[in-house]
Amino acid sequence: MSRTDTHLRQDEIALVPPHFTVGRVLFSRPAGGTANASAVVVTASGQYVLKRRNPRYCAPAQLVYDHHVLSAARAAGLPAPEVVKTRSGSRWLEHEGRIYELYRFIEGTTEAHPNEDQLDAAGDMLGRFHHVTERLAPPGGKQLGRLWDPRKAADLLRPLQTRAMDGHLGSLLANSATEATERIELLLTSLQQIRMRLTDETYWSLPQTIIHADWHPANVKYQGTQIVGIFDFDWVDRQPRMVDVADGLLWFAGERSRVQGRGDIWTLTETPLLAWERMQRFMRAYATHYLPSAEELAALPDLMAARWIYSRVDAADRKVPEAEQIRFLLRDVEAPLSWLDQHRSDLVGPQWWS
Q1: What pLDDT, on a 0 to 100 scale, did the predictor assign at position 168?
Q2: What's the whole-number mean pLDDT along residues 219-248?
Q3: Domains of the chain, each with CATH number or no CATH
């Protein structure tokens, strides 16, 4: 089974009236998501989102850090959700060792396939977010290290490779063992090449800001072409700003064939069809705030490749039942890597602006 619990129970939803001044719960519905448990809670005073934070994101210093960034974003006029404080004035509720947060619900739609104007809005909003957080010094703290570290991805891949070599393929056909082993070996080779080209020293030398670290269409809401909600601040951290840009180019500019909702990890990590013209739109909108340096562009293909591989292997490890993990990992995993190799000269050069 998956090791990530995303189901919010009725007894947890019943915590709302005693601890928050929002009135009696009339009804609730699942809110989706693959890392935290959440539900839309409707009371006499309006709609809210109740979220139980994943234990990975519950350290007190991390809570303080994340909420400081969220507050700064709201204060600057960005459409971050409004936190509903507890009756005691806290921004989160600790109950039986778990952390709960309540937010005012934001009306809008999640666009799995943003159109061109929505792409522009996503690039522009990311630039605005980076402008707000560039000089921010939140209290609390995080020790996330290098995001989407190719070494960590390789560590997660090797047990899957061993299972493939032993013929333990789960839902894959038994005669796929050799092919699966070889394909995982190619991913390990790609990660080793990323490490050689984009060393830790080079990674940390890139211009930094506090990034969102999950800039994905599932984490924003639109009304028409305007972004009216930014969500999921659990990964915010001071990192190279191009890590967020890499996300935008993969997930906003990339087109996926099917998306069934925020709670479906298979479609959220569906292989994106990468297209240069859509990437240009996103990048040009972002560049109205920050024009990437030559060093940042040189790192971009490897940041994108590392993110893509990590998104698959990390989700396989934490969010997919063991019997499905190898099939989940390998479904058309090579296509974005091949595209990035073929278009490396475009990604690192002045073609963005031509």
Answers
A1: 76
A2: 97
A3: 10-104 (3.30.200.20), 116-353 (3.90.1200.10)
